[in-house]
Write a structure and sequence with these properties.
Oligomer: single chain
Number of helices: 1
Distance between the termini: 68 Å
CATH class of one domain: Mainly Beta
Strand content: 35-45%
Structural class: mainly beta
CATH superfamily of one domain: Jelly Rolls
Largest sheet: 4 strands, antiparallel
Helix content: under 10%
Order of helices and strands: EEEEEEEEH
Shape: globular
Number of strands: 8
């Protein structure tokens, strides 16, 4: 089985479908128009160029191209999640200051 890791750029022809069985990545539309449907999500999502959508981990996802569409599958965690992790991680341990009274 072929396994590809993000980031990955793909081209879909008009009417072509792509099944993503694993999820856990961010889908970004570079050009064209795509629709996304996921298991346990009652809504279909229509994405235009520049828009992104988080594919839920473990959810079977179908992506369809309304026209020739370029897609980018990005890291499992969005840039915002990476930034939040960086901001909330403990600082390097240093001795605490002590105040004598």
């Amino acid at each position: 089985m072929l396994r590809l890791s993000p980031p990955l750029t793909l081209k879909l022809a008009a009417g072509e479908l792509l099944a993503c069985p694993r999820g856990g990545v961010t889908l970004r539309v570079v050009s064209g128009c795509a629709w996304v449907t996921q298991r346990n999500d009652p809504d279909d999502h229509f994405l235009q160029p520049g828009q992104a959508f988080e594919l839920q981990p473990g959810a079977l996802t179908l992506i369809g191209a309304e026209q020739e569409t370029w897609l980018r599958l990005e890291s499992e965690r969005s840039w915002a999640a990476r930034l939040w992790q960086r901001l909330t991680r403990p600082a390097h341990s240093s001795p605490a200051a002590t105040v004598a009274v």
